[in-house]
């Protein structure tokens, strides 16, 4: 049986994983809200100041989610208060609090 672990499959090469340096690789360190906010805005790839479903999916993929499409969907349901299908600057705090609860750790 092929035991190759495909943990990085589908993660784009621009992924900012590993941006936050950890001193001890044995200890999982959770992203802080500030780090998560920075990660999400890094994925505003068209620089329109809003996060689309596609941008959210890429951000969650980078965070290590195995179901980034679902996470993007849930995040929009939760944080998109005005229902325009995008997370704006005013709405990003709710997105960040959602991501914090998911407990992503620094890889
Ligand atoms: Ca955008
Ligand atoms: Ca919105």
Automatic annotation (TrEMBL):
Q: Which domain of life is it from?
A: Eukaryota
Molecular-function annotations in GO = calcium ion binding
The record ties this protein, via SMART domains, to: EFh (SM00054)
Q: Which UniProt keywords apply?
A: Calcium
Heme among the record's keywords? no
Give the EF-hand domain ranges. 31-66, 67-102
InterPro entries named among the record's database cross-references? EF-hand-dom_pair (IPR011992), EF_Hand_1_Ca_BS (IPR018247), EF_hand_dom (IPR002048)
For whether the record's keyword set contains Calcium, the answer is yes
In terms of SUPFAM superfamilies, this protein maps to:
EF-hand (SSF47473)
What's the protein here called? EF-hand domain-containing protein
Q: Where does this protein come from, organism-wise? A: Acer saccharum
Q: What is the lineage of its organism?
A: Eukaryota, Viridiplantae, Streptophyta, Embryophyta, Tracheophyta
